[in-house]
Specification:
The protein has helices spanning about 1-20, 30, 40-55, 85-95, 120-125, and strands spanning about 35, 65-70, 75-80, 110-115, 115-120. With about 130 residues, it is an alpha+beta fold.
Length: about 130
């Protein structure tokens, strides 16, 4: 008797799951937008503009998966990269270590404090 009830519940569950609408998973960029400060806009905006232009002219689209700060530097993730896009991202990520992520001023290096890396100038760091 218990086995019949179990099979009935399993069949009901599978039927309900089959009828649920499919939900496509979302990338962090779709959920959270740009996850770094406005100071790096000069670094990431040309990349976004390149991707928008590329997508207008090509059938296969470049998707932005995430734009964020990690270990004191800019990170820019996409589903694929052209050679030009790869060069732009590498350049922006490298340059980000010398740009305050908050205000955009030049810095010599990110601030390291209590095992955390802050991509900020001294002035912005003391305001937090």
């Amino acid at each position: 008797m218990k086995e019949d009830k179990l099979q009935e519940l399993k069949a009901k569950f599978l039927e309900e799951r089959k009828n649920r609408p499919k939900v496509e998973p979302k990338w962090p960029y779709e959920l959270f937008g740009i996850e770094c400060g406005e100071g790096w806009k000069v670094l990431y905006q040309p990349i976004i503009d390149y991707i928008d232009k590329y997508n207008e002219d090509h059938e296969e689209k470049i998707e932005i998966h995430q734009i964020k700060e990690k270990f004191g530097g800019l990170r820019f993730y996409t589903n694929f990269k052209t050679d030009a896009l790869r060069a732009m991202i590498e350049d922006a990520e490298e340059r980000s270590y010398n740009v305050c992520g908050t205000c955009g001023k030049h810095i010599d290096k990110p601030i390291c404090e209590n095992h955390w890396i802050y991509p900020q100038c001294e002035e912005c760091h003391t305001k937090k």
